[in-house]
Design a protein that fits this description.
The complex is a heterodimer of chains A (416) and B (192). With 416 residues, chain A is α+β, with helices and mostly antiparallel strands. Chain A has 3 domains: 37 residues; 203 residues, Oxidoreductase, molybdopterin-binding domain (Sulfite Oxidase, Chain A, domain 2, Alpha-Beta Complex); 129 residues, Immunoglobulin-like (Sandwich), CATH 2.60.40.650. Chain A contains 10 helices and 21 strands. A 5-stranded mixed β-sheet of chain A has the order 4-3-12-7-8. In chain A, strands 5, 6, 9, 10 and 11 form a 5-stranded antiparallel β-sheet that branches. Chain A has a 5-stranded antiparallel β-sheet with strand order 16-15-19-20-21, with no helix packed on it. In chain A, strand 7 and strand 8 form a beta hairpin. Chain A starts with a helix and ends with a strand. Chain B has 192 residues and is mainly α. Chain B has a two-stranded antiparallel sheet. Chain B is globular, with a radius of gyration of 24 Å. The chains are: A alpha+beta (416), B mainly alpha (192). At the A-B interface, strand 3, strand 4, helix 5, strand 12 and helix 7 of A face helix 2 and helix 6 of B.
Chain lengths: 416, 192
């Protein structure tokens, strides 16, 4: 045996013995130095190349309920972000939610092979490599993404299930409006069709006015390259719009005169002008992440009520919290910077008296739009107040999510 | 003469301004070849201008459906785990649960889609599962004709091609509205 190794082993053994002694000493308060915690387990990859989170942190994504992942075809469908464990306003890339078309594959795109074609009703169609996109001036902004399927239901137990198909990351890339100016959009153009490179070539149409406003052809997510599941090497960010328009693995955009209605669009159309009005762009929305379903308050006393608020219409202006099922509301604090179309952390000091109650949050955005309760939404559609107990919300669901706190401190879904 | 010599420089100046306003600032990227555009230009407009030449009938589509579609969508176009493609006259009892998003009944594509081009687009774009992009244009026309015919939209004998596919009158032709989107403005109806 290598003598160096042997002596190292001896040293480590001695270290363990010393640590045991230290533990005893610290317990008796003899030595301040001895109170230093034992060294964490470490690997070279972790310590130098790419850091891992603590082994004591075990927050994970889960597959969406009604379609197991992988499914019987071996495909992963939607995957939910653990909002109940979130702190701050940014979702770690490894925990970002994933939505797919029919459980699409994640394509393996070599960065050198990547091309983005911008064509259609333009003066000069152009094809860009990844390297060329990075030679344009970049923008970095936090934006939430949210799947149309993010609909809370009475049978959901946790906030991950009611609301986990939304996440927020800092996205870096080129302004789409800049690229559109480079190719010269022609008169008569009204829509764009964007398309991904995966096997189903997911494509969607959205208004040119949005494309010229604030979209990003993004290659960065939270300070590094976009994760493969989230569109590596390049995806589109259409701030505030339904997730499906934020085309992953972006390979092409065509500037066109009319609505194209590819398969993705078709799945999202509606015959009802009210439902249509609630599609495309998300309304103001918020959810309390703690205390939330599945958690338990150990007893009466002081707690923080905290959660996330966001809106497709712009920045969050204020968040209110109700403790009586929505009859009265108290304004919460915004506990982070309120960016346009981005998760914004809110909170409130709260002293729980040990009585049963229903807590919920309500977001108002910079346009003055207010998040509805399920009863308020039902009224718009001429339905009874409890209609959405058994029915899914039509279009985008930005309804208030209530949590019921029992006198024993257990928290459950409060959808009535 | 005097007038003409005055107009010429004005015209040239006007052209320069127009050209300057529209010229690229960065000069990055490459003009794609016509072949590159053609090979990628697969999103089909409701007016069908991107459709390739080709044709097919329901009769030609029937064996293709059995071969390429039935395994997931069911032998009769319903009862499979994948979305229902042919609406049964009466829904069978004990249907297996379908995969989310579950598409059945009135949501069957040939009945719900306002445009026949959308059906062509999706079959061409994303089918069959695992062998996407392997169908020839004629096969896509034939399978589209088969689904339209089986759902009672066109006669079994109709030859569907790039010219008449966009003309097919769909049952839900006027059955959708687009959101009236205005940037940085509140959504209509949403006053709470």
């Amino acid at each position: 045996m290598d003598s160096k190794k042997a002596s190292r082993r001896k040293f480590l053994k001695g270290g363990a013995a010393a640590a045991a002694v230290s533990a005893i000493q610290s317990a008796t308060g003899q030595s301040a130095i001895a109170q230093t915690p034992a060294p964490a387990k470490r690997s070279l990859k972790d310590e130098v190349a790419y850091g891992e989170r603590s082994p004591y942190v075990n927050s994970v994504r889960i597959a969406v309920n009604d379609r197991p992942s992988p499914d019987e075809f071996g495909l992963t469908f939607h995957v939910l972000t653990p909002l109940q464990d979130s702190v701050g306003q940014i979702t770690p890339s490894a925990l970002h939610f994933v939505g797919t078309h029919r459980g699409a594959i994640v394509p393996d795109i070599k960065p050198a092979d990547y091309r983005f074609l911008l064509h259609g009703m333009v003066d000069r169609p152009l094809e860009f490599t990844l390297e060329e996109l990075k030679r344009f001036p970049s923008v970095s902004r936090p934006h939430f993404l949210e799947c149309l399927g993010n609909k809370s239901r009475a049978e959901h137990k946790t906030v991950q299930q009611t609301t986990g198909l939304t996440s927020c990351a800092e996205w870096t890339g080129v302004s789409l409006s800049l690229l559109l100016k480079e190719v010269g959009v022609q008169k008569g153009a009204n829509w764009v069709v964007s398309e991904g490179a995966e096997e189903v070539k997911g494509a969607g149409s959205f208004p040119l006015t949005k494309a010229m406003d604030d979209c990003i052809v993004a290659y960065g997510q939270n300070g590094e390259a976009i994760r493969p599941q989230n569109g590596y090497p390049v995806r589109l960010i259409v701030p505030g719009f339904e997730g499906i328009y934020n085309t992953k693995w972006l390979r092409r955009m065509k500037v066109v005169d009319k609505y194209y209605m590819t398969y993705n669009d078709y799945g999202h159309i509606s015959t009802d002008p009210k439902v249509a009005a609630f599609n495309l762009q998300w309304g103001p929305k918020s959810v309390i992440t703690s205390p939330s379903g599945g958690q338990k308050l150990p007893g009466h006393g002081v707690y923080q009520i905290t959660g996330l608020a966001w809106s497709g219409g712009g920045a969050v202006k204020k968040v209110d919290i109700s403790f009586d099922g929505g009859q009265t509301w108290k304004e919460a604090e915004l506990r982070g910077e309120a960016h346009r179309m981005a998760h914004t952390r809110f909170g409130m000091n709260w002293k729980w008296d040990g009585q049963e109650c229903v807590i919920m949050s309500r977001c108002t955005d910079e346009l003055g739009q207010v998040q509805p309760t399920r009863a308020q939404l039902a009224k718009i559609f001429n339905q009874p107040a409890d209609y959405y107990h058994d029915h899914g919300v039509q279009g985008t669901d930005n309804t208030v999510v209530p949590w019921k706190i029992a006198s024993d401190g257990s928290v459950t879904n409060g959808i009535a | 003469m005097a007038l003409r010599s005055f107009l010429v420089p004005v015209t040239i100046l006007g052209l320069c301004i127009a050209a300057w306003a529209q010229s690229p600032t960065y000069g990055l990227g490459n003009p794609p070849s016509p072949e590159t555009i053609k090979s990628l230009d697969i999103a089909i407009s409701p007016d069908g201008k991107e459709l390739p030449a080709g044709h097919g009938t329901a009769t030609e589509g029937a064996p293709l459906f059995v071969q390429k579609c039935a395994a997931c969508h069911g032998k009769e176009g319903y009862g499979g785990r994948a979305p229902e493609l042919i609406k049964p006259a009466t829904p069978p009892a004990n249907q297996p649960p379908c995969l989310s998003p579950c598409i059945r009944g009135a949501n069957v594509m040939a009945i719900h889609s306002p445009y026949a081009t959308t059906i062509w687009d999706y079959i061409n774009r994303g089918m069959p599962f695992g062998k996407e992009g392997s169908l020839t244009p004629n096969e896509v026309y034939a399978i589209t004709a088969f689904l339209l015919s089986k759902n009672g939209v066109i006669p079994e004998t109709q030859v569907v091609d790039e010219k008449n596919l966009p003309q097919i009158k769909m049952p839900n032709a006027n059955g959708y509205v687009l959101p009236d989107y205005k940037p940085r403005a509140p959504r209509p109806f949403a006053k709470f």
